[in-house]
Amino acid sequence: MSPAPSTSSHEAAVRRDAARALLRHPLLTDRTYPDELAAVRVHARELTSLFGQQLGYRLIVEPSFARLLKEPPGPAAPWRGATRRSGTPFTPRTYTYLALVCAALLSAEIGDQVLASRLFEQVRAEGHLAGVDPGDNYQDRRQLVTALEWLIDLGVLEETDGSVGGWGDRRDEALLSVNRTVLPHLISRPLHSLPGPDALLEEGPVGFGLDQPRRSLRRKLAEQPVVDRDTMTDAERDVMSRERTELTRTLADAFGLHLEVRSEGALAFDVDAQATDVTFPSQGTVAQAALLLIDAAIDTHRPTALTTASVNGRVVRGQGVSYAEVDEHLAHLVTRYGKGWSATYTHDVAGLRAAVVALLTSMGLAHDDGEQVVLLAACGRFRPLPHAAPSMTRARARLHAAPAPTPPSLFDEETS
After folding, report:
1. Does residue 38 belong to any structural domain of this protein?
2. Better-scored residue on pLDDT, 359 or 193
3. 102 and 177 co-located in one domain
4. pLDDT in tens, 362-385
5. Residue 108: is it exposed, middle or buried by C-beta count within 10 angstroms (0-12/13-18/19+)?
6. What b/e readout covers 28-39, taking b as 16+ CB neighbours within 10 angstroms?
7. Do 330 and 372 belong together in one domain?
8. Under the phi-then-psi rule, with left for phi > 0, alpha for psi from -120 to 50, and beta for the rest, what region is 162?
9. Does residue 267 have a pLDDT over 70?
10. Do 178 and 217 sit in the same domain of this protein?
11. Is the N end or the C end of the chain the one with fewer CB atoms within 10 Å?
């Protein structure tokens, strides 16, 4: 019996899921995400038009991969860099090795398969040309392994025989296969046309040329966890005010995102977490400590909708919390909940603070000016609601709290 024909609603759902997959993973390969890539290929024409018209992005679809070329997030947006498999961020040295590995892989000296030792030789050659001296000690090999693992997870490299970890630790040889069709598309724009490295982070014609306030606002909402009203242009604020109904419908139909607008700003959240690369609240020591820190700091200061703080000379709506107070709160939380947390952090409050602040800033919930942490108004969205979980204690409710689709308010301010 032949299958029943697909309905238009089913096709729209499949297309929306494919768009969400591209937002979460801008590079899909037939090895890393075969099902998602298959859906993107089926709907390539519609998705190319969708991303171009709605967000100003360019989509490249080939038989073995799909690459969504995005615009840089802009200076006011939270930045999230590359991370190790453990979740810790790349160091500048790791980024250096990543750049050298990519240059080595693009060299004519490297074929479709290469031994790890031979690739390292080419990395050293590229480093000497760039005025960088890659070392050959254990720490340098681990930095190189981190860069290789990142490319493996991305689908650019594949461990055909052996592992890069074994090569880094014991010099055990590893054979790598290179996905050469993907390599030229790792960077969103050609480097030879740029005047310097800073230009790579500036908005430019990656997609459809000159931007429009509707498109730039949709892009911010689709990409940023929280969009402060102060970071919107006058034209974007006008679009938010006059065309909110249409904006809500577009984000829901195209990407399955639900728009929430408050006087302080807006966010488009994904209740299914299919388009989200980092979830919050979530499990793990850092995420749980961050959630409890928000609650503790708000309980201490009782900020209102009129509470402001200064961040690098700019006044924002939020509550400033000194490093000393943050450490005090975290030390108390470690004492209370530390038995179930990672020993890496329970014995290093300063390290826990750095990780917590990095998470909150990456989620657009805080600013860090080097002396204090400013918890922004959106943090009020994550206050626990103990009465909504009668079977839990207040402490457990805090650890498991998640934002409801229609939370009460931001710092008790009414929805605009």
Report:
1. yes
2. 359
3. yes
4. 888 999 988 899 999 888 888 765
5. exposed
6. bbbbbbeebbeb
7. yes
8. left
9. yes
10. no
11. N
CA 120/CA 33 separation, integer angstroms? 28
**CATH number assigned to the domain comprising residue 112:** 1.10.10.10
Sheet hosting strand 227-228, strand order edge to edge: 227-228, 265-269, 258-262
Q: Give the rounded distance of the alpha carbon of 354 from its chain centre.
A: 18
The amino acid at 214: R
* Residue where the block lists tokens 């709160």: 329
Give which of 387, 395, 394 is closest to 404, Cα–Cα: 387
Q: Under 8 Å CB-to-CB from 328, ≥6 apart: which residues?
A: none
Alpha-carbon distance of 165 to 143, in angstroms, equals 11
> How far is residue 178's CA from residue 110's CA, in Å, rounded to a whole number?
9
- Between CA 402 and CA 396 the distance in angstroms is 12
Q: Provide the residue range defining the domain that includes 46.
A: 8-69
Exposure string over 317-327, b if 16+ CB within 10 A, otherwise e = bbbbbeeebbe
Mean pLDDT computed over 105-117:
91
- Quick: pLDDT tens for 70-104: 887 776 677 778 888 887 889 999 999 999 999 99
Which DSSP symbol is given to 365?
Answer: S
Using a CB cutoff of 8 Å and minimum separation of 24, what contacts does 364-367 make?
A: 364/77, 364/78, 364/224, 364/225, 364/226, 364/227, 364/228, 365/225, 365/226, 365/280, 365/294, 366/318, 367/311, 367/316, 367/318
Give the pLDDT confidence score for residue 279 in this predicted structure.
82
276 is a domain residue: no
d(CA 306, CA 303): 8
Residue 402, pLDDT score: 44
Computed over every residue of the chain, the mean pLDDT equals 84
Q: How far apart are CA 365 and CA 379, in angstroms?
A: 6
pLDDT digits (tens, 9 = 90+) for 82-91: 888 887 889 9
What pTM did the predictor assign?
0.82
> What tokens does 162 get?
């052996």
Residue that terminates a domain, selected from 241, 269, 297: 269
Q: How confident is the model at residue 50 (pLDDT cuts 50, 70, 90)?
A: very high
Question: Over the Cα atoms of the chain, what is R_g?
Answer: 23
